[in-house]
Amino acid sequence: MTVVNFVQGDTRVYGLIGNPIAHTLSPLIHNSLNKILGNNAVYVPFEVFSQGLKAALEGAYELNIQGLNVTYPYKEAVIPHLIEMDAYGKQIGAVNTLKKSEGGYVGYNTDACGLLMSLKEEQIQIENHNILIIGAGGAAKAAAMALSSQKAKKIYIANRTEKRAEDLAKAVQQYYSLPIEVLPLSDIHLLNDVDICLQTTSLGMHPQEGQSPVNDDSFFNKITVAVDIIYNPWESLFLKQAKKAGCKTVNGFGMLFYQAVKAYEIWIGQEISKDKIASLYQSLKKKLKENKDWKEGFS
Ligand code: ATR
Description:
Blueprint: E1 12-18, H1 26-37, E2 41-47, H2 53-62, E3 67-70, E4 84-85, H3 87-92, E5 97-101, E6 104-108, H4 111-121, E7 130-134, H5 138-149, E8 154-159, H6 162-173, E9 180-184, E10 196-199, E11 225-228, H7 237-244, E12 248-250, H8 253-268, H9 274-290
Parallel strand pairs: 1-2, 1-3, 4-6, 7-8, 7-10, 8-9, 10-11, 11-12
Antiparallel strand pairs: 3-5, 5-6
Helix pairs in contact: 1-8, 1-9, 4-5, 4-8
Bound molecules: 2'-monophosphoadenosine-5'-diphosphate (ATR).
2'-monophosphoadenosine-5'-diphosphate binds near residues 139, 159, 160 and 164.
């Protein structure tokens, strides 16, 4: 395949729909993949307003756009416009990847896979471990389904609004039979058997960097691994607290990166070489960690 430095007549077009999208990192990841794989393709962000979502999808199909990522606030809203969905999409009730097919787009949820691939990259074992999920929103749902599918021993879900945590537990138990316990966020310091804690709320995300859902630092003395879905700031207050207590810490860049890799693999219909992915992961990680300019808004 030819390496493209410019768009040509036969360049395949992929993109991202959402709003706002001005600060997204997805074009950086996808166009880097195009470059290292020598694919004649380009990935473009499209800001879409909610009243135009249906027309945007129909237009994208007619323009032969091969694949789209979907971000806030359309991960659920696109579903009625799809011809089919993968298993994670159905379980989570949200999709982040669309692939053009005969008669329409097929939806996939690669957030769940992205989290699992990121944890694998960091050599974090799920099977037979007790995991606490903080939060009960969309990100928590993807995480809960993913972790349940990997035979976690037990999942705790702690959320400010306990009812949402209960609803999430019920949704997971429709598909998986592991034990799930719900508790208020204020009670997490009472848990004594948690190995891994996964933070899925927006607390601590730029520009609210000084916030963490965990008030009592001693909580971190009882766990070994802390994972945050936040990557801006690169190290959230939650991860700083965990690091201070000696926990292994993982930020959300890996999840973002690997959900993009999985989407790309779906689009091209084959797996990308592990070596190429690992080297791109390391180089983007280094670039972002050291680059202060993206701090003002990448999401
Ligand atoms: P997403 O789809 O990105 O996960 P969401 O559905 O709005 O977003 O969920 C946000 C999560 O962050 C929820 O768990 C929310 O708790 P509530 O269900 O109680 O609203 C949590 N969250 C947001 N702000 C919070 C805060 N100030 N304190 C505690 N939890 C907070």
